Amino acid sequence: MERRKFLMLFGVGTLASYLPVAIAACSSLFKVDEAFGQSDGAVVAGTIADLDNAGQLYQDNTSIGSIAVIRSPDNPQKLLAVDPTCTHQGCTVDWDGDKKQFKCPCHGAKFSANGKVLKGPASSPLGTYKAKIQGNSVIVSKN
Ligand code: FES
């Protein structure tokens, strides 16, 4: 085999061997974009499996804000999504699945599953979002 032909075949072979890697890299980047934003301003907060395993989904600093998603204690088929930023002084509230309320670790405020104040010092409800299931994903958008 001529040297020139060998080098050309070697070059094509090398390019062909890297092509799947390049495609995989691009597709994984595409999935990251899909995971954090959708064209209509909604965001994917996670999967149903993640929600059911952890009992909640938290996403900080999405394009629509920080998000906490839970299943409604009254109707588990329904999802509730709130901004977990406490309205007192901005700490992040935690979901207590046993007591079915959000609790603020800083000064003890408590909020219902849909964000209403149950106990001060916070006086304003948590912000809320719309949440829905689409396929295996939990989609959250502004109200
Ligand atoms: S920041 Fe939540 S109760 Fe003070």
Automatic annotation (TrEMBL):
The residue range of the signal peptide is 1-24
Origin superkingdom? Bacteria
Q: Residue limits of the Rieske domain?
A: 43-140
Query: What does this protein need as cofactor?
Result: [2Fe-2S] cluster
Keyword Disulfide bond in the entry? The reply is: yes
Q: Does Iron appear among the keywords?
A: yes
**Gene Ontology molecular functions:** 2 iron, 2 sulfur cluster binding; metal ion binding; monooxygenase activity; oxidoreductase activity, acting on paired donors, with incorporation or reduction of molecular oxygen
Q: Which GO terms describe its cellular component?
A: membrane
InterPro entries per the record?
Answer: Rieske_2Fe-2S, Rieske_2Fe-2S_sf, Rieske_Fe-S_prot, Rieske_Fe-S_prot_C
Q: Which PROSITE patterns does this entry report, sorted A to Z?
A: PROKAR_LIPOPROTEIN (PS51257), RIESKE (PS51296)
Query: What residue ranges are annotated as transmembrane?
Result: none
CDD domains for this protein? Rieske
Could you tell me the keywords of this UniProt record? 2Fe-2S, Disulfide bond, Iron, Iron-sulfur, Metal-binding, Signal
List the PANTHER family hit by this protein, alphabetically. Answer: CYTOCHROME B-C1 COMPLEX SUBUNIT RIESKE, MITOCHONDRIAL (PTHR10134)
Protein name, entry field: Rieske (2Fe-2S) protein
What's the source species for this entry? Pseudanabaena catenata USMAC16
